[in-house]
TrEMBL record:
GO terms of molecular function: serine-type endopeptidase activity
GO biological process, one term: proteolysis
Keywords per UniProt: Hydrolase, Signal
InterPro entries referenced in this protein's UniProt entry, alphabetically: 6-blade_b-propeller_TolB-like, AB_hydrolase_fold, Peptidase_S9_cat
Domain Peptidase S9 prolyl oligopeptidase catalytic intervals: 716-889
The name this protein goes by in its record: Peptidase S9 prolyl oligopeptidase catalytic domain-containing protein
Signal peptide positions on this chain: 1-19
Origin species: Roseivirga misakiensis
Pfam families: Peptidase_S9
Amino acid sequence: MKAKLLSIICLFACFTAFGQKKILDHPDFEIWNTIQGQRISRNGELILYSLEKGEADNHFKLKDSKGALVFSHERSENGRFDFNSDYVFFTIKPWQSDVRELKRQKTKKSDMPTDTLAIYSVKDKRLVKIPHVRGYKTPAKWGGYLAYQLTDDAVKVNGKEKKASAKNGYHVVLRNLKTGKQDTLKYVTDYKFANEGEKLAFVTTGLATVQSPGVYIQELNTAEPKAIFTADKGKYAQMTISNSGERLAFVADLDTTKALVRPNALYSWKEGMDRAEKVVDQVSAPQGYRVSSDGNISYSKDESKLFFGLATPPVLQDTSLIDEEIVNVEVWTYDEPRLYTVQELQVANDKRKSYLTAIHLDKKNKLVQLATKEYPSASFGNEGNANLVLVNTSLPYQLQSQWQGGTYRDYALVNVSTGETKMAMKEIRGGVIFSPSAKYAFGYSSADSTWFTYNVATGKRQNLTLGKIFYNELNDSPNFPSSYGSAGWTKDDERFLVYDRYDIWSFNPENGQGERLTKGRESGTAYRYVRLDNEARFIDPKGKWLLTTFNDANKHSGYYTYNARNGRGNQLLTGPFNYGRPVKAQDDDHVMFTKQSFEVFPDIHYADLTFESPTQISNANPQQSEYNWGTAELVHWMSLDGDQLSGMLIKPENFDPNKKYPMIVNFYEKSSNGLFSHRPPAAGRSTISYSFYTSRGYVIFNPDVNYRIGYPGESALNSVIPGVTSLVEKGFIDKDNIGVQGHSWGGYQIAYLVTKTDIFKAAEAGAPVPNMISAYGGIRWWTGLSRQFQYEHTQSRIGGTPWEYPARFIENSPIFNMDKVNTPLLIMHNDADGHVPWYQGIEMFTALRRLGKPSWFLNYNGEPHWPLKRQNRLDFNIRMAQFFDYYLKGAPKPVWMERGVPALEKGINQGLELMDKR
């Protein structure tokens, strides 16, 4: 009772101190909205989105271009327009509170409430609700129809019930949206609309005396579906219908035995045929391969070729063995290409592995295998119309990728008509793909930091940027610098547009001659192309382009129009905001976009391509004005290494420079480009909530860090601490009440800092690495990868092995200096962490415990690198706030910090109550 009364008094005191504005508390997380699933109609007249409140229920909104509400529906999400913008579909969910209550009552899963499909007619303003819907599909490039699948139903067959299920299929209802007429397709296991042709294909397990099991196609202007393949028993996979709807293919397994190697066959159907024909089976497949039921099936754009997958025979278990006769032993060898832990995680993928193969439909179904065991990966060009495919292999380089942190590949070209293979490029570090018309293969070679093209007809490789700085100028890892990316290609692959740090360049892919199109370097402004038409494959070399801008110095962003015909441009919008990437209506020159800052929520706005007089569409969190919030600004200082650094300083809204504020330092690597990012109050999984802490009277400092290879810990010290002292010198920071918080790489740096300085009164380090030697030999369990590459080439920045640089590993490992720690430490490290082995956190905690240093360890059972479950994230945020409030603001101590939470009480008594302040 005393603890509760004390909390109320503290809250009241804070409330009155901030001029009657509310102070954010953890329950307020529940009232904050985020915007989900925003879409603009093709005609640009309507915008839909959902507001998700407190990570719980969604509220669906449909608005017109002036921001007026057209329609809304509670507990609804996943909105979608039909192709003609005449209808809107969305899903109505059960109230989450109702679901929780039913779970509390131990309700059976089969009795739990299901989703409802909603169809809203824009013209008639009429809503139709269809309950018990598993999912639905709409045509991609035509409208007027909808197909939805019901959750469960039963039909009596010969006096027996055949239940709808994953095995038997579910009922699909085909609905004419204009007339409301519906046809029910029974026991459907798969269904697809053609993208362009008005047809629907489906697979059914059938209904005795009514419909035979098999594959069917239905033209939407006819009453009955047409059976193109039927069989009494069979399993069908990878059914695919071509864009026009005139072709269809699938894999069928018609064998009724329990053979371990399934006799799959590929079938193909064309408009005008009565029945699909077998194209490839186990007899006609290339030797050593079989038709895969897992490999994707697709058609070339011109529908002259059918692509499918061939697989190798499976590795079979001797079924005559009993459990006590089976030896389960892992045999790891030193020179196998993939580490055993990687193999183990990829077993399912390896079993499904298939190799791209082409069937020439206009050449009597000629089969040409394209990918092989030697070149297992393949990609076709020009939407499958090209006569060459690009294949690659990383097999010769997989072993060294364990410590290199990247993979080299060999690339070859395969003739789709003949199967002839021609070596193109060897030992490329980086991805290579086709240009849109497939005249060139192109990519960025990390090893020599250059963009290049490869003429597929002549075999000429042309370096475009060799010797020029088109790579990351700020790279501070012992690794090859990355590129800044590319904008794309102009028509017929005539020019290739590449980014440097600031500008867009146009290159002739044949001779490498380039020209700079924008003038961003002079002002420190980065220009980037915005692809407004998702269906456009080329950039118009004479059109008007929309670009985004970002200024390095002040972090302002904006939009810019560029006339590619004359090279002139005009700034449309710019300012102290983070402007989001605009999304254009497909058939109209209007866009929806967002702008945000620390103070401004990223609501949806609507404008034409001049961005004059934009209209605000959403108002997701009007309640923000009722709360003490905060402001963000850029600060600068000099590091101990002599580098000019920047960082973000977040102050309370009612900041008074004559007062002293507690400060929390939160950092990772470089974050100042996010100065104008909005940070709503939320139960974050790994970091403090900036708005939450500033509302409660804290100042937040997020400094950038410059790294020196081999000395990451010292680099953090030399960057962060001068930034902290520069703020203390300004007079408004309470130097005796400074905390620090970070996770993963941030957690490591904090672990290092507290062994070198006592400037922090309290620290929280999430998933830290105190021992680089033991961590170097660990496994990233989510991927099975060795952690060696991380220290030799990437984030941990040691630059070599422990036997090459033993001193570096020791000097950068806080574990060897735990006796120097005088800062109370809260550690969060979960036992299912797949990135950083959780024994690292344990090593740090047990060392501090051995030394009698104040420290606490949080392990959310079964959670990965960060707590994902909402209840665990909220718990972590509450404990972290209590920890910092106790040390930095003199708040009462929570029970869990005094006595822990005994194992007997885990999940029962959380110890979050505040003790009486002594």
